[in-house]
Each structure stands twice: as C-alpha cells, then as structure tokens.
Amino acid sequence: MAEKQFPKGFLWGGATAANQYEGGWDLGGRGPATSDTAKAVRPEERQNLEGFSAAMTREKVEFALHDKEGLYPKRWGTDFYHRYKEDIALFAEMGFKTFRLSIAWSRIFPNGDDAQPNEEGLAFYDAVFDELGKYGIEPLVTLSHYETPIHLALEYGGWKDRRVIAFFEKYARTVFERYQDKVKYWLTFNEINIMGISGYVGGGLLFEDGKQNFQDLYQAAHHQFVASSLAVKAAREINPQFQVGMMLARMQAYPATCNPLDVMEEIKKDHENLFFSDVQVRGKYPAYAKRFFKEKGIELEIADGDLELLAQYPVDFMSFSYYMSSVARASEGSGEKTAGNFSLGEKNPYLEASDWGWQIDPVGLRITLNNLYDRYQVPLFIVENGLGALDKVEADGSIHDSYRIDYMKAHIEQMYEAIEDGVELMGYTPWGCIDLVSASTSEMSKRYGFIYVDADDEGHGTYDRSRKDSFYWYQEVIESNGASVLNEKGAEQE
C-alpha cells in the first residue's frame, strides 16, 4: 500500500495574533488598541469567559488606559516586536510553509482615521515579511484581529458607525499596496462571528448602559461585511494574485438527542454560527436571517449599493478556528455544563476535556470540514486549532508535552480523512505555535506553543525561547507532509 501523506503544496505552519504576541504597544508610533484594555483574569475566574463578552463602557476604557496598578499582558505579549528574527528562525527550523500573523491596525494608522500612515509601523512589517521571505515562509496576514484602534471606539463607537468602513478600506489598501510583492494570502476579520458575542472585542463597540444589544452588534457586522468586500475589491485591483479569505470561529453543534426539537435546535445554532460565513462566502444575506432579525428586533440600515457589493466581491476561500464542539438541546435539561470557546454549552459525555473545560473532538473537525465544504464549495483553511495546557519545565529545561502531540495527531488524522472525503483543504496553522497571551483570560499559563516562552502570568521572566517535545514532533510531521502521523501503526483506526 502506498504511503499516505497530505496533498503536494499543503500549507503547514502556525498562527499568532499581534495583540497576544507582538508587544511593543507604545513603541514605533503605535497607537493604543482595544486589546490594550484587556486586564488579566484572576485564576479562580479563568474558566468563566463571561468577562470576555461583557459590554464595555467609555468609563471602563478610560480607566484601563490610565490604570497604573492593573495587569494588562496583551500590551507586551511575548515580545515578537523585538524577537521576530529569532522566532522566525525557529519557525523555519520546524519547516513552516506558512506563518499566520496579524498586522496591528494602530501600528499603521495610530488613531485609525489618520490622514497618513505611520512609516515606522509599515517598515516593521516590511522587516518581518522580508525575514519570512528569507526562509521561504509564506505570510498569511489577518487585517483585523481583535485590536481596533481605541480612538475609533471612543470617537465613533467602533464599527457601529458607518464611517469606520472607509477607514478600514484605506488601511487595507495601504498595506495591500505596500506588501503586494511580499504577501499573497490575506484574511479580513478574525473570527468575525465574535461580533455577535462581544461587540468590544469584535469591533470596539461601547455600550454606556453596560448592556449589549443585537441592533448595534449586527449593524456593526453589516459594516464589516461591506468593509470586507471593499477589501476584496481593492485586493483584486492591486494584485490579482492575492487570495483573500474570511475567518470564522466554528462552533460545531450536535443535537443532544434524536428528538426532532433538539435537531431543530442544532440547526438554529448552526444558523447563528454560519450566518457570518454565509454572507461573506455566498455574497448575500441568508433567507433564515429574516426571521432571526425579526425575533431580535434588528432593523439593519443598508445603504444603496451595499448588497450589490457583497454579491460582487465575496471572499476567495474560507478559514476557521476549531477547538471544540458543543451540544444543542431545545429545552433546559439536566446535562452538565462545560466551558467553551467564548460560549457555554452542555457537556458531551462521549468526549474528554482539557484543563480549561474545552471538550476535545477530533472527529468533529472532520464533520466540520465536510459540512463547510458541502455548504460552500470553496477551499478551506484551518487557521486555528490546538490544546491550551499547563506545561512543566523539567530540571534540564525539557518540556514533555505528549498531551499536545496526542491532541494534534488525532486532529491531523481527521483532516486527512476529510481530504479523502473530497474536501479541498489548503493548509493548517495550529494556534499559538509559540506561547502567547490567552485571548480570553490574558494569562500565560494556558500554553499552546511548540516553543516555550519563559514568562509568567504577571509578565515576569527572561522571555527566552526553548523547544518543547512537540517542536521536534511537528518538525517531522511537516518534513514528511503528514506521513509520520498517517502511517503510524494504528493510525488508520477511527
């Protein structure tokens, strides 16, 4: 039997975000961003993600910006700003074909609405892309990853103001033109559906009464849809070779039982999740949105030409994050609850869970890949997946993270099965390929990386980099194009 491996040209790599990794928040002309107001969550509250989705007010933002006592780890991340050459060399040593990173919008336009871009910020990313190019690593660049310039939040209320569309288009055109010979793959908004959960994280929305409302959340989402299409339009004009994708936090749901009401609840959950990709990939609002908007009291302000723009400039491919699945039940049952990716759901008795309560479901990834490809028939890209865990550094400096290897191996096997099912999968960039600050809790303890960073939750440490066991394992996976996993004894078992 021929050796199994992934398709030729498969893009193996890793993923990061400027707001959790880059640091240098007050250097190089960068302006403050919404992520800079994210305070570290206390250990006893870390499995509760409600704080992540809480409404932000102007008062809370102003306090955070002037707070001298609080801990705001996303401001320093794990210092890619100063260590990018060292980190990229480690990525090259692992054999990365691609590296997903985000550009900090406020490093290019410090206020978001500036007349001219910040040259020092542009030059920084020039240096990063040149370094990646030196090793033949293809950048995969997210334009907006949870780091809206704070000025746009305070002055305009974030993305609920239509004027922000033009600011984003100007930013997109600026970086497209600057890096047109260095970057091919782009994503517009990271996990765009998070706008339906956290308006502040997703788009700098402020709610002075301390309560989010669906009207503002979905109006802001509409503005991002239009901005994304304008970015696709700009990309095609500037460099027809560009590939622009959308990015969804995929939340695969299963009905709790075969009760038709539970099955219908699962369909409803899917609609809530896939609404965002339906608009960006299909180029139009789905029919089921009409009922959702009616029930939630949402009346979108849609300008002349908006719908035509969405239809004319959908994205080229779909990317998504996948960490876990969830269970849908029509009525409140006695099922045990578990922590999830920005949401809470019923525990699935067939699955194990991480230390943070995220249930581990490799087969769910195959299900998701099949469902998404059946639905959209466009190339798919897994741009986030991984296991957040507590890593122990041994006396000799080694880190034996077999649990991470087991997690990755199981998901890679299911990716291959999905490709065999007929899914067109472009690549795989596991999340936090190097340790970085957690998105939801701003802690360092929850580590995802193949590369360990010597820093603790308070920001203390040398920030030196070291290789975990998973580093060498992933190196072999990439070198063999997946064959080292797929041809292991027992790998064929499902």
Concise structural overview:
Helix content is 38%, strand content 14%. The strands form five sheets. An eight-stranded parallel β-barrel has the order 1-2-3-4-5-7-13-14, surrounded by five helices. A two-stranded parallel ribbon has the order 6-8. Strands 9-10 form a two-stranded antiparallel ribbon.
Task: Describe the protein in words.
- Keywords: Glycosidase, Hydrolase.
- With 494 residues, this protein is of the alpha/beta class.
- The protein has a single domain, classed as Glycosidases (TIM Barrel).
- 38% of the residues lie in helices and 14% in strands.
- The protein has an 8-stranded parallel β-barrel, surrounded by 5 helices. Strands 6-8 form a two-stranded parallel sheet. It has a two-stranded antiparallel sheet with strand order 9-10.
- Helix 9 (214-238) packs across helix 12 and helix 13 runs parallel beside helix 14 (402-420).
- The longest helix has 25 residues, at 214-238.
- The radius of gyration is 21 Å and the shape is globular.
- It starts with 10 loop residues before the first strand and ends in an 8-residue tail after the last helix.
- The relative contact order is 0.14.
| Sheet with most strands: strand arrangement | 1-2-3-4-5-7-13-14
How many H/I helices? 16
> Unreliable runs, pLDDT <50, ≥5 residues?
none
Q: Percentage of helical residues?
A: 25-40%
Under CATH, the homologous superfamily reads Glycosidases
Mean pLDDT, all residues: 94
Distance N terminus to C terminus? 18 Å
Enter the CATH topology name. Answer: TIM Barrel
Instruction: Name the CATH architecture.
Output: Alpha-Beta Barrel
Roughly what fraction of the amino acids lie in strands? 5-15%
Largest sheet: 8 strands, parallel, barrel
The helix/strand class is: alpha/beta
* Cα radius of gyration in angstroms: 21 Å
Number of domains: 1
Number of strands: 16
CATH class: Alpha Beta
Write down the overall geometry.
globular
